[in-house]
Write a structure and sequence with these properties.
Elements lengths: L2 H20 L6 H8 L2 H8 L1 H26 L11 H78 L13 H66 L1
């Protein structure tokens, strides 16, 4: 394996490691968000977008080159080389290497995009969880304040009635506290609706993260299968060479 493809394979192994690391279930999105917002990660992220685009461009170029090599050495069906077994073996070896490089470049490119998407989804999920908790606390505070105000209003009305002061009935003109209660109830209802909206967005983000994790696991299984096929093909090639 040449130096450039050794570097791409190493990059692929690192990507597989980070994908598996991001898929660990007992590390919460909040913890990942804190890690992403750390000073070291923020410093790396300053040049991360440029580095990401450069890496994508390099992997696309290598994938195209590997695809061209595969087409170049796929000539055994078009050219009759039965009288030259050495040439057939040489072409098969070149074709195997080109196919291996094509798989390596393709999976490296796919995992690079997958890593970026996973990091984005984890950050979004952490933000939604924080917003959900804030809305929930705000709604609970508004509900508690409304209940306390209603209880105080009822106590005040009872004291006024005991003192012989006429208290307007609900629905009649001049019932200011009742109108304020209605306003408070409307605010509580609005906050509950916002909380439901945030919960739905959080559930959608959770389902997206689960889908990406499942896709990453499938890619890991497929990669292991390709490594086994690679080992078998390499062993058969060594036997033919011997």
């Amino acid at each position: 394996m040449s130096l450039q493809w050794t570097a791409v394979a190493t990059f692929l192994y690192v990507e597989v490691f980070f994908v598996l690391l991001l898929c660990i279930p007992f590390i919460s999105p909040k913890r990942w968000n804190k890690i992403f917002k750390s000073r070291i990660i923020q410093t790396i992220a300053l040049y991360g977008n440029t580095s990401f685009m450069v890496a994508i461009a390099i992997l696309v170029f290598l994938l195209i080159d590997a695809f061209r090599e595969v087409r170049k050495y796929s000539v055994t069906e078009k050219v009759d080389l039965t009288n030259n077994p050495t040439a057939i073996e040489h072409i098969h070896m070149k074709l195997f290497r080109a196919q291996r490089n094509e798989y390596i470049a393709g999976f490296a490119l796919l995992l690079c995009l997958l890593l970026r998407r996973l990091a984005t989804l984890l950050s979004q999920q952490a933000s939604l969880m924080a917003s959900n908790e804030a809305f929930k606390k705000q709604a609970e505070g508004a509900s508690t304040a409304a209940k306390k105000y209603m209880e105080e209003n009822e106590l005040l009305q009872e004291k006024l009635r005991d003192a012989g002061v006429e208290v307007p009935e609900p629905g009649k003109k001049g019932a200011g506290p009742q109108e304020e209660n209605k306003i408070l109830k409307g605010e509580v209802k609005t906050l509950k609706e916002e909380l439901d909206t945030t919960k739905k967005a959080l559930q959608k983000s959770d389902s997206d993260v689960r889908a990406m994790k499942k896709q990453a696991e499938n890619l890991t299984v497929e990669y292991d299968r390709l490594l086994e096929e690679h080992s078998k093909l390499l062993a058969s090639s060594d036997k033919k060479t011997d």
